[in-house]
# Entry
Amino acid sequence: SQTIHQWPATLVQPVGSPLSLECTVEGTSNPNLYWYRQAAGRGLQLLFYSVGIGQISSEVPQNLSASRPQDRQFILSSKKLLLSDSGFYLCAWSVRYQGAATSGSASSYNEQFFGPGTRLTVL
Amino acid sequence: AQKVTQAQTEISVVEKEDVTLDCVYETRDTTYYLFWYKQPPSGELVFLIRRNSFDEQNEISGRYSWNFQKSTSSFNFTITASQVVDSAVYFCALSEPFLRNSLRGSNYKLTFGKGTLLTVNP
# Structure
């Protein structure tokens, strides 16, 4: 079975310090990977997604960056944290679609499965 | 642009009551997928259901049921005989392909609603 890990679980960092959050997936190959942030108010904001090693797409311009050094590893980073970077960071994976589409087959490539999250507080 | 609206910010019920969580979506895609996720106090999002746009059959899973109506762009979620353990934030989500009009098929990202906080009181 597939599992997704995130660490650390909680983090308190001063403004201006660097950040590195890590996410790893086990039990699957070639996944799509995603980083979300959930700020106060509960909405989930997609930050980055990746369809392969070294391939990163950014959804919103911000103080963060992402990297995918290995197939099942996804890292969220910042050189200098801002107060507004505080929030709950969730990593997710989904099966990567790589074949011809039919009305039924594409459906299984949609669900995203989430990790336990990292709660970041910037002071 | 994709949009998911969960108009109910918070709902509070007493145990054993039935409760319906509303979800309305907007998309220009003819093929799309809708989802419900549960976020308990621990924070992790738990996948509950996927529904594709060409299957409007309602689905029931135990105390959970989902009503998909394409004509009104709604995908509502009902919990029957609610329990305290159902207390959580519930998110509705809509798929959006990474690459539109790709002849090789698509991978998808999700647009989430803002969530509904359900509190079930004993």
